[in-house]
Amino acid sequence: MRHELNETANRPQMISNHDSLKSSPQKPRLGRNFIILSAGEAFSKLLTFSAFAFLARVLGPENFGTIEFALAIIFVMSQIVDFSTEKIGAVMAARERDNVSRLAVHVVSLRLII
Fold first, then answer.
1. DSSP code of 2?
2. Opening angle at CA 85, ends 89 and 105, nearest 5
3. Would you say the pTM of this structure is higher than 0.85?
């Protein structure tokens, strides 16, 4: 998309390049990539379910409960450590493209401190 000045209203008007997107060779790859990604996600979920079912049977209720409790604590702590630094870092990297390496050091340092 590009911006052009609308002379009648003196404000930017969005011009879309939809015609050029229709003939893009990338379009067939999008559908194929979506199917591959979906199949990979489904396989991952099935494998995770199978692994947890196997662990539950082998370890028994008490030991499996201990592992699940530890995984819950790890999940909560990882959410605290993340603290949206990934999203904030992405926005700041988009704003300051010249200082991405310095920004990456700051984001990683902040995550290690937290």
1. E
2. 60
3. no
